[in-house]
Amino acid sequence: MRREQGFTLIELLVVLAIIATLLTLAAPRYFQHVERAKEAVLRENLAITRQAIDQYHADKGTWPESLEALVEARYLRAVPRDPLLDSSEAWNLLPPNDEESGTGGVFDVKSSAEGSAQDGTPYADF
Known about the structure:
Blueprint (H helix, E strand, L loop, with lengths): L8 H52 L6 H6 L18 E4 L13 E4 L15
Antiparallel strand pairs: 1-2
């Protein structure tokens, strides 16, 4: 009798069990790295936007009325996206305090995402 070549069902099940075991080890680390990358992008976008707000105020003597005003004045190429919410319109815009010079406009920007970063810091405090 001639034996046909191929894999048996047991061999395929063993291979699938090994792949599933490896995935259970790798998948959580992957998602942790994705979240850490989003947090890093959020911090960088906030830093760049805050720097553009400060430069606008130093040049013009007033605070920008909106983030779009920074784009129109070419301090930013585009309004940055909040990577946690995947939106460029979900920012919390804070007006200047009474002690700050000028009235109205945007003094600071914060994320409106709920939750906390991996280090326990709320996203709203970035």
